[in-house]
Amino acid sequence: MVPGMREENSFDQLADRCRRDFPLLNQVVDGRQVVYLDSAATSLTPEQVIAEIRRFYTEVGANVHRGKHYLSEQASNDLEEVRGKVARLTGFRSNEVIFTANCTASVNIVATGLRLNREDVVLIPVDSHHSAMLPWLNCAKVIHIPVDATGAVDMERYQRLLFETAPKVVVINHCSNVSGMYAPVHEMARLAKEKGVITVIDAAQSIGHRPVVSEAFDFVVFSAHKMLGPTGLGLLCGRYEHLKALQPATFGGGMVDWVDLDHFVVRKLPYALEAGTPNIAGVYGLGAAIDYLTGIGFDAVAAHDQAFGAALVRETYGRPSLRVLGPDEHADRGGILSLTIDGVHNLKQVAQIMSDAHGVMCRTGHMCAQPFIDQHTADEVLRISGYVYNGSSDIKAVFSALDATLDAIGVGV
């Protein structure tokens, strides 16, 4: 908790400070100002990030590492400066930071680059995002780490699996995009490293709220678009010796030092894993997003995340038809709430009415975590997720819209 900031209004203070920076929140739907509560899918973009992307296109515009003219040098220097910001955020070195297309691409680069076979075991929590699960299902033997009804990892079973299965890789989901539950990622990684197991940390849902830094992390993957940055940009951070051991998945310009008709020489890291023109404008935007969050202070961002999540859970009290997936308000959870509604099987209709009639944007579906959701419900879920620009007024708005929608379709809460 931020010193001197009471729990019940901590997220309001930060939200009031941030809202003016997000132009999309001024948009009106059917006469109602937008209430955006789908940040677990994609966060909104502040004006500072938009301005930096605009600066690239209006003042620089050139490709990176493709020439020695002034504009190319400027673009190259700016890109490497952002690479350094990512390194400081994650605890890796600059040459251990790889720019990719998205978090999915980052996981695939590791999964294919390790050259595993069908006998190699990979441990993955059952609440993992499909993007953290499918690349391993495609190339190795996946064994799922159980989580309980609250979304907490079964640590006793996890330790037994480390001993019994001799895994090559452990994939750790730092924060569930369904339950909002934070896993004990440092302890899980430490136990894996004691067994000599490679650790891959999926920080897509957490990096914009809590930096994840540990020597026990071999790889950390995440996306810019969940931390106030642009879409189309992912990050792969890896220890040098592990990155060097990866077989590149993509070959082409930018990742070679020399090419003749039957031979080529791959560049040193990080460029060996960055074939082709990167999302340069996206990198500019990511740098501004990191600056924005650093300017707020990650202690304040984390406190908002925790307080907002607890407030979401509290709002469900007294609504007996709502079934929450995940922990209660006292658990280590983020600002994410997924729920089902007794007697309602078409949650898409609920979300559409909330959007079109009330201006409240949230998500329904399996959240790209279908195995986990299928363990708890035969239906989809409705997910509410906030970020630094959301406060108590947004919580009141979403539950007021939900109450009115259920009343309109004849379901009491």
Automatic annotation (TrEMBL):
Q: Where is the Aminotransferase class V domain?
A: 35-398
Work out whether the entry's keyword set contains Transferase: yes
* Family from the record: Belongs to the class-V pyridoxal-phosphate-dependent aminotransferase family. Csd subfamily.
The protein's matches in InterPro entries, at most eight in alphabetical order, are given as: Aminotrans_V_dom, Aminotrans_V_PyrdxlP_BS, PyrdxlP-dep_Trfase, PyrdxlP-dep_Trfase_major, PyrdxlP-dep_Trfase_small
**Native organism:** Streptosporangium algeriense
GO MF terms, alphabetically ordered = transaminase activity
TM helices/strands, residue ranges: none
Spell out the protein name for this chain.
Aminotransferase class V-fold PLP-dependent enzyme
What catalytic reaction does the record list?
(sulfur carrier)-H + L-cysteine = (sulfur carrier)-SH + L-alanine
Is Translocase a UniProt keyword of this protein? no
What are the UniProt keywords, alphabetically? Aminotransferase, Pyridoxal phosphate, Transferase
Task: Provide the cofactor list for this protein.
Answer: pyridoxal 5'-phosphate
